[in-house]
Amino acid sequence: MNTRIHGGTDEHGPVPFDFSSNANAVGPCPAVLNAVQQADALRYPDPNYTALRAALAHFHQVEESRIVVAGSASEFIQRLTTCQWRKGCSSYWVPQHAYGDYAHAAQVWDMEQVDDASRAGLVWLCNPSSPLGQAESTGILKLVEDHPDVVAVLDCAYEPLCLDEQARASLQQRDHLWQLWSPNKALGMTGIRGAYAIAPLGESRAVRALNSLAPSWLIGTHGQAMLQAWTLPETQSWLAESRGVLAQWKTDLLDCLHQQGWETMPSIASFVCAKAPREIDEVHLRAHGIKLRDATSFGLPGWWRLCAQKPQAMAALSKALQV
What we know:
Number of domains: 2
CATH superfamily of the largest domain: Type I PLP-dependent aspartate aminotransferase-like (Major domain)
């Protein structure tokens, strides 16, 4: 059994008003949904994902040889960590509050967690971060840039959901980093699994090793269709428009929480960490069709992560918190 803690659907099933998942509540993206619905489920996809890798390379303006297809962000985290361990990597660094799969993947191979990123064999970064939704530290970004021997991964899962236009465009130099992209959150389609990574320049040997560790047909036709449609201009236009809607919904969320006496942390993403003025009764919230993400597993006991949601969900949350 998987004992790791995540937002979203759990053993009790989905809820009508899920604040625990960071999926784009404006979604699903119509163009991508249509592509997924039109995917040919009767045939295998191309095991080399030739057209997909070409589309992703063109989208990011990089060489096709730098694209690594992944079953999901979590799958890539496990595979890259395994690859590094096989090469002799014995230490890792993660932010103080970060996605738990980074550490889990390293602990499988008994890697040592170190406090100094310059001494780590593998460094995980996320911009904006989760659960805080804050910009990655410029200090740590500069450190990994100055230490080319450190294998550093920038998790870009929430970059499309960054509501600060300037912050989203600020990180220009990336060719020394692995970039991990998992668009299903931004598209509001987390049930479709599929992700990809962009290798740093000059890492063709690492790309070959990662591809060798992957099973055949890493993603199915539906995941392939989602990733290809992610690169379409109409998808990116929809995403830009959705950020405007999310910004208003996030303002509504913050207003609701502050009116109820909650404390919130700064965030540039479509989600926020908040602390209630009293103990939260999850059973009570569940009875009202609401789920929040307990941030204790992130090292933030007493805090909860909530994502911007539709007005109907906000009305349900406001009512439940008043009881």
